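Board notes (copied after class):
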Amino acid sequence: MKILFIHQNYPGQYRESLPRLAASGEHQIVFLTQRKGLARPNDHVIARYEPDHVPAEDAYAYTQWFEQCAGTGVGAAKACGQLKRKGFEPDIVIGHVGWGEMSWIKEIWPDVPLVGYFEYYFLAKGGCLGFDPEFPESKNLSAFLRTRNAMNYLSYMEVDRGYTATSWQKETYPALFHDKIKVMHEGVRTDLLRPDHSSEIIVKLDGHRPFNRGDELVTFIARNLEPIRGVHSFMRALPMLQAARPNARVAIIGGDDISYGAKLKDGDTFRARLTRELGDKVDWARVDFLGRVPYDVLTDLLKLSRCHVYLTVPFVVSWSMLEAMALEKTVVVSDVAPVRAFVEHERTGLLVDFFSPEQIVQTITDVLAHKDGRRDLGVAAREHVVEHYDFADVCYPQFIALLNDALPPGKTIPLT
């Protein structure tokens, strides 16, 4: 089978399914991306594309996003045209619809089935925007989001099948979309993410005191430390947490860039802004900002963690929360709809008010004070993840079934 993946940020949502498909040796796989400097893999081809057009900074705000997506989509289509001229004719194309990459593929291969990942429909109410009063919605937000969603509608018309990770994400889309969108999570490797409560793991990172089993460690992870992932709620809880637990050590993992929303002025970061705000109220010697770390370091830190904190506004839930649950960590998480889809309070984790540092601290301290750190919650959390989100036994078979449903009769991708 000839399979084309398209995602501007390789490997994106396909970090597990791509190597599994490639490892079979039965497929010719090409991955089209914007990322540069990637090592050349042995089992698939990485091809690059550049946007055909980038809007001016002062482009009309209501159409700027669509203009950017159109430039991205046409650039991806032109790269597909080059692949076609070199003789590559895919049996199926799989990709993310959010940036326009899938929207002109039918111009190149009209009869090839497209399977699109629908991640998020922009909501004026009930989603990430307008949730936190500290960051009020901009003027005419609702009208602005209507035009920002134009790419979602174009993508719906183009793809043959679609999917999204959770029911909450699907429900962000209007009913029109639901016939094409299957709920299907990417899955986590619970076979690799195995709990370890006893071995003497030591994590050594330059510039930081080693982490070991003796630390009363609280972990916080986000791709980037920004308000949509609750870094401000967590950091403002630090003074009370340190007062309540004098031996607690906090490891904060994440970059200083912006994944969602606008950057701060003059190169400022939310971590720096909050550090200035809190000043000497926090003993910063007991707080380790680790930036982005290799995946094996991240998982070792989670294995050492006594309590993992995940605070997010209503938005797509990060893999790190499920990974912590798979490692039998007791998780303290924000009480918002997308998180409640994974965590049941007092059964698989503990839900807290995103806006209440007092409740966040009280919940963390209750976990740390408990003789076994509420391991009952961690055990139930892993059981839940294994049953519903295990990559090999649950999510990958669902993914292959969706691809086969999109393929014409006589073509099948085996589940190997």
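Comment from the instructor: The mean pLDDT is 95. The chain is about 35% helix and 15% strand.
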